[in-house]
Amino acid sequence: MSVSFIRRIATPKKALSTAAVAAATVGMALTSAPAHAATTASGADARSIARQMIPDAAQFNAFSNIVNHESSWNVHATNSSSGAYGLVQALPASKMSSAGADWKTNPKTQIKWGLDYMNSRYGSPAAAWNFWQANGWY
């Protein structure tokens, strides 16, 4: 070990400033992570994303009714008996991977998959809601 290295460690002021710079650098690296790296979205966030993705008020309300009943807008909602997962309770959950690799945590990906499912199977979120009301599932 060199004498200059030992001196740097032995000098408290330098050691503290070096630690502060290192901590600040780590902090900057953590705060500069992309926004999509977040794994938790509130129900209000998810609802806001859905509102942007579904501009028609009637279709949004129908979609919202289904999500309220299925998951209460919880991106991580899991049905313990069936394994259905996410905002729209996809079964199997992995089907949502067709909408994006971040399907486990991203409300936008789950909403996209749910809309595609409702449109392809029922014709629209409103028709899916009508089916849900008659059957208790969709």
UniProtKB/TrEMBL annotation:
SUPFAM superfamilies: Lysozyme-like. It holds the Pfam family SLT. Residues 63-129 form the Transglycosylase SLT domain. Coiled coil: none annotated. Transmembrane segments: none annotated. Residues 1-37 form the signal peptide. Keywords: Signal. This is Transglycosylase SLT domain-containing protein. It comes from Streptomyces andamanensis.
